[in-house]
Give the backbone structure.
Amino acid sequence: MAIDRTELREKLKSFFGFDSFKGNQEEIIMHLLAGNDAFVLMPTGGGKSLCYQLPALCLPGTAVVVSPLIALMKNQVDAIREFVHTEDRTHIAHFLNSSLLKSQIQEVKDDVLSGKTKLLYVAPESLTKDENVALLKSIHVSFYAIDEAHCISEWGHDFRPEYRRIHEIVNQIGRAPIIALTATATPKVQSDIQKNLGMTDAKVFKSSFNRPNLYYEIRDKANAKREIIKFIKENPGKSGIIYCLSRKKVEELAELLNVNGIKARPYHAGLDAATRAANQDDFLMERVDVIVATIAFGMGIDKPDVRFVIHYDVPKSLEGYYQETGRAGRDGGEGKCITFYNHKDIQKLEKFMQSKPISEQEIGKQLLLDVVSYVESNTCRRKILLNYFGETYEPDNCCSCDNCLYPKKQFDGREDMSTVMELILSLKENFKTEHLADILAGASNSIIKSYKHHKHPLYGVGKERGQRYWAAVIRQGLVLHLLDKDIDKYGLISVTEKGMEFYEKPYQIMITEQRTFTDVDDDDDIVSSPTKHMAGSGGGDQTLLAMLKDVRSSMSKKLGLPPWVIFADPALEDMSIFYPITQEEMLKCSGVGDGKAKKFGAEFLSLIAKYVEENDIVRPDDIVVRSVPQKSNKLFIIQCIDRKIPFEDICEAKDMDMAELMDDIESIVNSGTRININYYLHQVLDLEAIDDIYTYFKEDARSDSVDEAMRDLGGDYEEMEVRLVRIKFISELGN
Ligand code: ADP
Ligand code: MG
C-alpha cells in the first residue's frame, strides 16, 4: 500500500491536528510505511510516539506497541482516542496489561479480532503470555513498535529483563517491520538494542540530542539545602523537580521546603498509590511548585514548563541524568539543571552495588565513573554529554553551562597529553582511565602490583599532580578524540589515529585546572543548626564582625563577664552573615537562644540595623533557612534537671551516653536557658574543686575552651568535671 507525502501530511493534520512534522518524523514514518525496520534515537520530548501512531493509523492491521509504562498506557490510549475523530474511536486503540479485569481483556480481544483496533499497547510481561501470543498470531500485525527500547540493555538506566524476550516472541507471532525508539543514545545501548532485537541492519534515525535551552551546572554539595531554598525563592512560581536517591531524603527535603514556605510534594514508590497520584496531580495541575522525588517519578510525564530539575544526589548514570534533566524546558523555554555533588555520594552508590552480581557491579561502576568524570570536568558540559551520546558538539563555548560561563584557568597540556600517550603505547594491553592515572600518579594498589606497573619507567612521573589530574587529562583526550574508550570492553583506553598524529607532532591543546569539591555532606547541617558549617569559615562581613566584637568587649567589661559568655565567636560570625535586626532573626545564629537574645541581644541588633541602613545592605533574610522541628531531647532533659533526676538515669531513659548528655546540656545553656545542676555537681565534685574551676572561668579564662581550662588548671580535673562546672557558670552568669 503506497501512501505519498502529501497524503501523509493530510493525515497528520486530520488525525493529530499538526501542520508539520517535527524533526525527522516524516522520514522515519515513510521508511516504516515502506516495510523497513527503523531505529529511532530522539531526545525526550522529541515526538517519538507520533512515529508509530500515525503509520499505525495508515496501515492495514494492528500495530503492537510494547511499552514498559503500565501506569501511563491508559493515558496514551486515551490521548490517541481523543485525537481520532471517528465514530469507533474507543476501538481504535487498546492496551493489554496486568491492570485489566478478565471482562475488559475479552473486550480488547474482541476488538482486536474484529480488525477495528489499529494500536495495541502491550506491557512486555503481557506480550510473553501464551494466550496473547496466540491472539496476535491470529491477526495481521502491521508492525511492532518497541518504545523505551533502552530497557533491553543492561547498560541503560532502566533495564527490564522481560524486554530481552521481545525478539523471540516477535518471531513466534510472525515477523513484521520493527520500529525501536529510545531517548537513550550511548553507542553501547544502541548496539545492545539492535543486537537484541535482531535489527542490526535497520536504518538508524538519530536526532541531535542537544537541548540548547537547557543550562547545566554542578555545585558543591556542602550547602545544598540552603542553596536549593534560595534558588527556589529566587524563582517564584516556577515549576521544578528535585531528584533524591532515597525515599527518606525525599520526605525530609519535601518537609524542609514546606517549612520554609515552598509548596512541595514528595513522590516515591514507598507512598501508597493514591497519595502518589494525588501528589503527581498537584504538581501537574500547578497546585504546588515543586515535586521532590526519587527517579520513580517522571518517565512519560509531559509537563512542558518544568523550569528546573535539581539533582540533590548525584545520579547513577549519565543516561539517567540526561533523561531526568531532559524533563526541564520541553517547551523550548528556560530549563535549569543543577546537580549537587559530593564524592562521598559516589562511594555510597558503590557500596549499594556490592550486593549485586559481579557483572552488574562492573557495569554500574563504569556508569558511575562516567558520571564522576562529567561532574568533575571543567570542559563544556554540553560537549561532554553529547560526546557521551556519540555526537560531536562543534562550538567551543555553549554559553549555557557553568564551565562555559565561568571558565577555569586553562593551560597548555601538550606535554602531559604526550606523557599519557607514551604510557598507553608502551603497555602491551589497554587499560582503563583510572589505572593509567594511577600509574602516572604513582599509586600503589593490587592491580598495579599484579601487572608490575610500579616497575614501569613512567610510574610516578606525575606524582605531584595526583591521580585525579591525570584522569582529567585522559578525559580531555577523549573529548578531543585523541584517545578512544572501548565501550564493549569496560572502557579500555587506546590512542586514536588523530591521537597518533598529535603524538608524533604535538600541538597546543588546552587543559583546564581541576576543580576541587569538598567532602562535606550537608546531611545534618540544617537540622541541628542552620549555620554550623559556616561558623568559623570567616565568610561574613568582616567590618561588621569587628564592630560586633567591640560591642561584646565593652559589654563584657561593663557586666564583668567573659566575652564568650555573652556571645561566642560563631554567634557573632553568623550575625555578620545574616544581619539579623530582630530578636527572632537572631535566633537563627548558632548558639543564640531566647534567653541570650533577650538578655544581650538589643545592643547588637541596633548596631546591625544601623550598619545595614548606612551601607545599603540587602539582607539575605529570605534565605534564612528554618529547620524542621526536631524530635529533641532538650525539653525532656530540662524537665529532668528541674526534678533533680540523676544524670545517669537521664542517660538511661534516652539511651545516650554521658558525653552526649553533656553536649545536649551545653547546647541548652549556650542558647540561654538557665538550669540548675548543683544537685548533681555536688555529688561528683567537692565544693573546693567547684570553686576552683568556677573562679578560673570567671577570672582567668580567655575563651570557653575546655582543653585550655584543663591545662591552665594544672591537669587536676577530668574533662567531665570541667564541663560540668562550666555549665553551671554559663547558666548562672550568662543566662
Ligand atoms: P517523546 O516520546 O519523544 O518524549 P512525545 O511523543 O511524548 O515525545 O511528544 C512530545 C510532545 O510533542 C507531545 O506533546 C506531542 O503532542 C508533541 N508533538 C509530537 N509531534 C508533533 C508535531 N509534528 N507537531 C507538534 N507537536 C508534536
Ligand atoms: Mg515517549
Notes: The radius of gyration is 32 Å. The pocket of adenosine-5'-diphosphate (ligand 1) is lined by residues 18, 21-22, 25, 42, 44-50, 302 (CB under 6 Å).
